[in-house]
Write a structure and sequence with these properties.
Blueprint lengths: L1 H20 L1 H13 L1 H5 L19 E5 L3 E4 L16 H10 L14 H4 L4 H13 L20 E4 L7 H4 L2
Parallel strand pairs: 1-3
Antiparallel strand pairs: 1-2
Helix pairs in contact: 2-6, 4-6
């Protein structure tokens, strides 16, 4: 039993070291960090206390876009139940560069896929490889809330220029 546990631990360390040495994954990590993906996809980030044990595991804050609804940054770890663990690298690349998810839905308007569409194919694939290398985080975020629906999460409101917070609350 001890030998099996030791073998599993050794295999885990070797796999982690191999991922850390993979230039594609390291490039993806750099791009995800530089791109600020953590901001919208890690719980606690917008509340000043990012929970790095759930890195990219889905936000706890939504963005309200007038007339569109409230959108919470989803879990983008390879968790098969609550994240993108069933997506292929090609599907991840398609989502970040065209805004289209594997189920055909379009990503929330707050997701900057228009800017990410300018990534090179190698850089987009590096991001996908990095996301797939993460530890899965089991964290289900709420689906988007339609305009007027009751919101169950803290939210930021994005308002058109010239509108006041007092007027928007009505």
């Amino acid at each position: 039993m001890l030998r099996i546990a030791l073998a599993l631990l050794t295999a885990s360390v070797v796999a982690s070291t191999a991922m850390a040495d993979d230039p594609q994954i390291m490039r993806g990590k750099y791009l995800v960090t530089f791109g600020g993906c953590n901001d919208c996809h890690t719980p606690g980030y917008f509340l000043g206390k990012p929970d790095m044990s759930r890195f990219l595991g889905g936000s706890d804050v939504g963005f309200e876009i007038p007339g569109k609804g409230v959108f919470v940054g989803p879990n983008i770890t390879p968790d098969k139940e609550t994240g993108i663990g069933t997506w292929t690298r090609e599907q991840i690349v398609t989502a970040i560069q065209t805004g289209q998810r594997p189920d055909g839905r379009i990503l929330a308007p707050i997701m900057p896929w228009h800017a990410l569409a300018q990534l090179t194919a190698d850089d987009a694939m590096a991001i996908a490889a990095f996301l797939q290398s993460l530890n899965p985080v089991s964290h289900q975020v709420p689906d988007p809330f339609g305009p007027g629906e009751k919101v169950s999460t803290f939210m930021f409101r994005i308002m058109p220029p010239g509108e006041t917070a007092a007027a928007a609350a009505q």
